[in-house]
Amino acid sequence: MKEKSSLFEWVRAFIIAIILAFVIRTFFYAPILVDGESMEPTLHNGNRMIVDKISYKIKDPERFDIIVFRATAEKDYIKRVIGLPGDTVEYRDDVLYINGKAYDEPYLDAYKAQLAEGDLLTYNFTMEELIGEKVVPEGRLFVLGDNRRVSNDSREIGTISMEAVVGKTSIVYWPLKEIRIERYNEPEK
User: Fold this and answer.
1) How far apart are CA 180 and CA 107, in angstroms?
2) Is the pLDDT confidence value at 136 over 80?
């Protein structure tokens, strides 16, 4: 009788663990694999990260957060929030301007240092030229990849809906030598 009871307890504990893992992964946190080079030098192809799915249920995304969003039914993208609802976004001479103020982007310094004199990492643009809107519409975000020359971002796909945002990501847990928390909230220049 004791053997049956012990087996039942193990089975029950296993089922509870599976249910808890499912609930946590579905509603709170989930792993994601960085696929591609669009966020280099910040994130690298093959990095594994944790997506926080609950933060944006409590508060809105902040400028320079790294987010995961549904780009297509089959594909999620990882990009950096640049423009929030009501913002104007512009690039001139490799300098980001949000609402007319210049912003420093130190996460791009490694790539900018590799450029030949006079080359731009990010080509000049205004939002109106790209998407036909002067400001980021309500309920939408303007996002860019850190590897500006290869990133498929708001310059091509337009602003993204807040409903498409899966969550915020900042914890790199693989490979082990790259474990870190990515944070960046820089004031204007």
Assistant:
1) 15
2) yes
**Active-site residue (options: 4, 6, 38, 177):** 38
Token pair of 23, please? 């609930």
Query: What b/e sequence results for 48-79 when a residue is b if at least 16 CB atoms lie within 10 Å of its CB, and e otherwise?
Result: ebbbbbebbeeeebebebbbbbebeeeebbbb
What is the bridge-based pairing of β-strands 48-52 and 66-70? unpaired
The alpha carbon of residue 137 and the mean position of all alpha carbons in its chain are separated, in whole angstroms, by 19
Residue 101 makes CB contacts below 8 A (sequence gap 6+) with 188, 189
CA distance 38 to 178: 18
Which residues touch 16 (CB under 8 Å, ≥6 apart)? Answer: none
Element (H, E) at 130: helix 127-131
Q: What is the pTM of this model?
A: 0.83
From the candidates 2, 75, 79, 161, which is the catalytic residue?
79
Q: Of the ranges 23-27, 115-119, 148-152, which is most confident?
A: 148-152
Q: How confident is the model over 143-168, as a mean pLDDT?
A: 93
79 is catalytic: yes
59 is catalytic: no
